[in-house]
Write a structure and sequence with these properties.
The protein is α+β, with helices and mostly antiparallel strands. It has helices at residues 10-18, 42-46, 55-61, 72-89, 110-124, 136-145, 157-164, 177-184, 191-196, 199-217, 248-269, 301-315, 347-360, 374-377, and strands at residues 2-7, 27-30, 37-40, 66-69, 93-97, 100-104, 128-133, 151-153, 235-245, 271-282, 288-298, 323-335. It has three domains: 8-71, MutS, DNA mismatch repair protein, domain I; 75-217, Reverse transcriptase/Diguanylate cyclase domain (Alpha-Beta Plaits); 235-388, DNA polymerase, Y-family, little finger domain (Dna Ligase, domain 1, 2-Layer Sandwich). It contains 14 helices and twelve strands. Helix 4 (72-89) runs antiparallel to helix 5 and helix 11 (248-269) crosses helix 12. It is globular.
Length: 395
């Protein structure tokens, strides 16, 4: 049997650990640039505020709401404390995301789940919901249906069928809006209809990933609890740049910032890449992406930045388009040690930068091209992003 631990309103719960006066109040956690709500308490949800809503739209809907800037450094501290407690309870644990873990359940009982739930609440201060079932997909469905602060154990075939009945397919992790639309075109709208569909048809429609979910919903485990993060196919850094902009200096500064973060990630995973992809999302033009081949397998800032800046004017078409999101993506990954070195690399400079930033602060030494981002580097909330927390298996 496989268990799933999922923190309830994790970012809000984490803020309430250090600010207890927020308990019982409608709380919204804001994203990088303090504009949109990335998490909300049940009280704010009850007022009708959806995730992703800008704060200026949420305030009239929930005038008593309290809004705080997200702090992934603090959230990681509590996440790893929660992970350690689950690892004490189970011999096999997957660090799935910052607020979720899968584990093999040594005692697939309500008493075991409730005991783990209470232990996390007492020692971490965060309420969690727990589901235990024969597969990861069913365990996550149970924990989701048990929220908030509930436990569920799937012990019989009748309970499995009851769990799937009338539940929309989008509740299945791995079935997003596009896949749900494809399924709906063939009359498959609920988890029960998905599980009862022909297996070969599901594979044809949604590839092997869809077939894996079909097996999982029918009680056959095919997705293992992964103790080590799977090997990367890509490594990406980026996200929102805040208010959409067509200011060339600001957009270029964000490209430089994200290349620095990408180099940091490649160094952590001991990887290099053969290609670099730059992707820009605009508010008034279609998304554009282009790929550049590097001269050999590289992971150094100079080579990746040169490629990114070469791509920027080609991807940014038309130049009047307002950039909203961007991603810098390393493709063609290979182990850093298994590569042909260039005659023109400067590892001493990269090593020096790495040592200084480790000792003084993450962005203490950075490219001068990021100087236009005074608002970004002046806000400590921007030191961490969700993808800068390492070890999770979800991305």
């Amino acid at each position: 049997m496989i268990g799933h631990v999922d923190a309830d309103c994790f970012y809000v719960s984490a803020e309430r650990v250090r600010y207890p006066h927020l308990r019982g109040m409608p709380v919204g956690v804001l994203g990088n640039h303090g504009a949109c709500i990335i998490a909300k308490s049940y009280e704010m949800k009850a007022a009708g505020v959806p995730t992703g809503m800008p704060i200026w739209e949420a305030t009239p809907i929930c005038p008593l709401g309290v809004f705080v800037k997200r702090d992934f450094r603090w959230y990681e501290v509590l996440s790893r404390k929660m992970l350690a407690l689950v690892q004490q309870a189970s011999p096999r644990v997957e660090f799935y995301s910052i607020d979720e873990q899968f584990f093999t359940a040594p005692e697939p009982t309500h008493a075991f789940a409730s005991g783990l739930q209470q232990k996390i609440l007492q020692q971490v201060g965060v309420p969690v919901s727990i589901g235990i079932a024969p597969t990861k997909t069913l365990a996550k469905l149970i924990s989701d249906s048990s929220k908030p602060f509930g436990c569920g154990v799937l012990a019989s075939e009748n309970e499995r069928l009851a769990l799937l009945r009338d539940r929309p397919v989008v509740d299945i992790t791995g079935i997003a809006r596009r896949s749900a639309k494809r399924l709906a075109d063939y009359g498959i709208r609920t988890c029960e209809e998905f599980a009862n569909a022909d297996r070969a048809f599901i594979r044809w429609l949604l590839t092997k990933r869809g077939e894996d979910l079909w097996w999982e919903l029918n009680g056959t485990p095919v997705l293992p609890v992964q103790l080590v993060r799977p090997q990367h196919k890509f490594v990406s850094r980026g996200g929102s740049i805040g208010k959409a902009s067509c200011d060339s200096q600001r957009v270029q500064a964000f490209v430089v910032r994200n290349v620095e973060r990408l180099v940091e990630a490649l160094s952590h995973y001991h990887l290099c890449c053969d290609h670099l992809i730059l992707s820009l999302l605009f508010t008034n033009a279609p998304e554009r992406s282009l790929r550049s081949s590097l001269l050999g397998s590289r992971a150094d800032f100079e080579a990746l930045l040169e490629a990114a800046l070469h791509l920027l004017p080609q991807v940014w078409q038309p130049a009047s388009a307002h950039v909203h999101y961007m991603h810098v993506i390393a493709d063609g990954l290979r182990p850093l040690d298994n590569r042909q070195r260039s005659l023109f690399e400067q590892p001493q400079l990269a090593d020096l930068k790495h040592r200084i930033n480790n000792a003084v602060g993450r962005f203490a030494l950075r490219s001068a091209a990021t100087l236009p981002l005074v608002d970004v580097y002046g806000d400590q909330a921007n030191e961490y992003d969700i993808c800068d927390i390492y070890g999770k298996s979800c991305f």
